[in-house]
Amino acid sequence: MSATRTLTPAMKLRRKAKVRRNILYLVLLAIALVAPFVAYPVFLMKLLCFALFACAFNLLLGYAGLLSFGHAAFLATGGYFTGIMLASYPGLTPELGILIGTLASVVLGTLFGALAIRRQGIYFAMVTLALSQMMFFFFIQAPFTGGEDGLHGVPRGELFGIISLDNNINMYYFVLAVFLIGFAIIRRAVHSPYGQVLRAIRENEPRAVSLGYNVDAYKLVAFVLSAGLAGLAGSTKTVVFQLASLTDAHWHMSGEVILMTLLGGVGTLFGPLVGAGVVVSLQTQLAQSPLGNWVSVILGAIFVICVLSFRSGIVGEIQKVVKKNFK
Amino acid sequence: MTQEFILETRGLTKEFRGFTAVDDVNLKVREGHIHALIGPNGAGKTTVFNLLTKFLPPTRGEILYRGKPITRMKANEIARLGLVRSFQISAVFGHMTALENVRVALQRKLGTSFHFWKPERSLDHLNDRAMELLDEVGLAEYADVLTVEMPYGRKRALEVATTLALEPTMMLLDEPTQGMGAEDVDRIVELIRRVSRGRTVLMVEHNLSVVSRLCDRITVLARGAVLAEGSYQEVSRNPQVREAYMGSDAAEEEASA
Fold first, then answer.
1. Among A58, A117, B174, B200, which residue's beta carbon has the most beta carbons within 10 A?
2. pLDDT band at A322 (very low <50, low <70, confident <90, very high)
3. Residues B1-82+171-257, CATH architecture
């Protein structure tokens, strides 16, 4: 077999699949652009924020193989920092407020990541849980977070000082743009030279070490990226709801994002998006119905069914079917 | 002594909670040799191996590579010196294609492995070299096959290709023929012979016929200590080795053969 200009048949096939994927992206984008005229924009924004949060979490679990049980800390840190900045400095534009919140999560992620990645598996999860609980109690006690009441009345302000975000449609397109940027970052990271090494580490860590890779450094980068994007989701959510509260910092939130990711399909790009969609829709629908008090039970049951019968999640299972039938 | 020692241990010792797995081992591997580490089960071969490759920290003793101490270095750092190990169970990246397996080893030298903002396409120029390496171990037609779907013997060959991608000066092979059928064993022996040209190889191996065919020098371990060292002929004549390693029956068989 000749080794010149190597583009193997499977690679050509993959390029073809790419074209199909791009069409899918365009269709989804079109839906997202029309959506606020069909559905309630605030609900859609909530969905997008949680979808970004879940995508960020999935980068860590699905592509680095690290199960964090403390991602609420990053969502909340982003939210609180943005909220405090926007509430205290009326001249600050929302995009700068969001940037500050995101940076705060990056800093916290670097700190927590450096501590947590020294441990593996369940110990890693426990360290992240402990650290995020620390943040939870910090947010209760700190004088500037509004304690149990949370931080209310955060102004949405004007994007770049020009476009008023008090209009829900404007706000929606801004949130959509933020989500798309976050999603693009994740997509690129997964399909980059870095992503290749990350995959190798997830597949066989000792072998990656023996090839000369400092695996801890790679894991830390994944952790920081994930924390930063979770912070971005939290910051954006604060601007949408004009509120930062303890709900985001509670360990329930860390559990919920695991549920979203597993339900949608861990290690798939669209899984967390679908998972977040299902969970957020259910929560919203059930809250209005007589079953309102049973939300947790119903979600728990769904989770059990998912783990027992379709382990690769909704998108994971769909991918399997597609692979089987179109090959 | 004209040849220098590429790898040397001095008083290498490893204790696990009072149990001495490796006891004062002084090992000297000459540059260009294929050196085997043999011994009965529980002799401490794999522990020595893990000490040498820094997957375990030694309790006492020193490890020298080209005369310089590497005792305190990390596992990933010695790979950068050209000291690359394989594993007992074939160490491949299962959900990556054979080509990607090799490429991930090649890409380290690019220095872009932390670049999460660059497209995967930026690695495509490594494909030619990766194909060459796959070809060298007879795996060209597996380039696009996911590694989990490859037969066991081929996985081991892929591991060798991945190791070669790093252009190691010394390869440490942990039981390269373990769990293989006769046909695969022959293929791997040939492969090791071929790729060892211009390199030093230290291997842990159970299969004595492989050792006799390949190795220039053999160190026999028993109960964590060095029992004997020499060529295959010297070592196999040693009565202590026969008793400890082969058992008396096998030793007689070997002698009459």
1. A58
2. confident
3. 3-Layer(aba) Sandwich (3.40)
